[in-house]
Amino acid sequence: MAAAAPTSLSLLPSSSSSSSARRNVATAAAVSSPSPSWRGLALKASPIRRLGFSAAAADPLLALQVAGRVREVAGAAGRGPRGVVSMAKKSVGDLTEADLKGKKVFVRADLNVPLDENQNITDDTRIRAAIPTIKHLTGKGAKVILSSHLGRPKGVTPKFSLSPLVARLSELLGFKIVKADDCIGPEVEKLVASLPEGGVLLLENVRFYKEEEKNDPEFAKKLASLAELYVNDAFGTAHRAHASTEGVTKFLKPSVAGFLLQKVENEFAPLLQTELDYLVGAVSSPKRPFAAIVGGSKVSSKIGVIESLLETVDILLLGGGMIFTFYKAQGLSVGSSLVEEDKLDLATSLIAKAKAKGVSLLLPSDVVIADKFAPDANSQIVPSSAIPDGWMGLDIGPDSVKAFSDALETTQTVIWNGPMGVFEFDKFAVGTEAIAKKLAELSGKGVTTIIGGGDSVAAVEKVGVADVMSHISTGGGASLELLEGKELPGVLALDEAVPVAA
């Protein structure tokens, strides 16, 4: 079914806006009701349309102001200043061969990879991300004691054993690693004692012990007794104060951060970049214009992220199930779409905050709706203001994909967290996959593209464009908390870096 004319839900001031509102040239303004003045706008082609500023295209004065704002943000050369953020924690890269040769190093990695019913790894992203740190250590003669969790076991649970990871780790490292049947105890100590320089011993799932998540000091001491140094390369669990992420640092010195070898500006650069460098750097000193794409099912799970990003972004694109809470807050009918009734006021306040901060907040103008939540549901494309009763929105529509893509075309930094729809169902994965492909295209043009963990990572992996992104975060909850500006216990526990003059 062809889409009807999209409603103008770019949330920008209309021609009737006050002059003070117009000064917020890239502003999100609340639409209180679906009035005829914007319902059927016939938008002409305009350079401003490339930015997704549909209301600006219909208002010449606002168009000039938007263009001025873009020049102000981008600078005369079309891009903002490039900021560099240095990690404040000591890194494994700071340790010399003399520090490492022959030393037993406890490495907390995040090897929490998905397995199918036959215990086969279905996505090895996190394993691959851990390899640079391990190779760096073994290359300098360290004896690596590798620790991780897998899943959420309640006691010893065979299906959550790390045994299925041994073959892939060995393949990526280029030599056979040893696997222990426990993570503490006499048998583990014997294996540690027999470990050669440059060897790797993989401990069993640390969460087989309830003391791990309780950050029990005695358990942490037993883990620490296996080694002489500590490296935390598990960004995905850095937001948890567990025995293997925070407790062991009280017994092992130095305690340093691991690193990930990343592609920077689409070239393989000899730089050791961390999750902290990318995620903190993206928020504190991005190349501009800076856009964030936030999706997911619920506003409540992304409140902190949205509020934090509104302090720094120029453009904020919203997708996923959360958009229907925003629609309902503006008086639109959403059918049987997911809505958080207790967050309607919050949605309104976030729109107001975007307006006050001069941020262009863009919502989809059309959506793909379904008659049930199922992969084989009947579907159609409708304007966001015309969702019929009994139907639910499960993806953004083609007009929204184009508007979002046009807005992203103007950027120099993009961070993405959360899918645009129910991408687990192929029929409703089009919007998410289109955004993934657009970011891949932008990466090829030198734009910094950061995939902020969770389902967004799964999406770019599914489309096959993960390798071209500037950075793929291995953290789910940790990525969110860092973007929210929260402190991460696993990072705070590490040794401070020696200050270096900029």
UniProtKB/TrEMBL annotation:
Family annotation (Gene3D superfamilies): Phosphoglycerate kinase, N-terminal domain
EC number: 2.7.2.3
Alphabetized UniProt keyword annotations: ATP-binding, Kinase, Magnesium, Nucleotide-binding, Transferase
Superkingdom as given in the UniProt entry: Eukaryota
Keyword Metal-binding on entry: no
Enzyme class: transferase
Reactions catalysed according to its record: (2R)-3-phosphoglycerate + ATP = (2R)-3-phospho-glyceroyl phosphate + ADP
GO cellular component: cytosol
Gene Ontology terms for molecular function: ADP binding; ATP binding; phosphoglycerate kinase activity
GO biological process, one term: gluconeogenesis
Pathway: Carbohydrate biosynthesis; Calvin cycle
Cofactor(s) this protein cannot do without: Mg(2+)
Similarity section: Belongs to the phosphoglycerate kinase family.
Subunit relationships: Monomer.
Name the UniProt record assigns to this protein: Phosphoglycerate kinase
Organism: Colocasia esculenta (Wild taro)
Lineage, opening ranks: Eukaryota, Viridiplantae, Streptophyta, Embryophyta, Tracheophyta
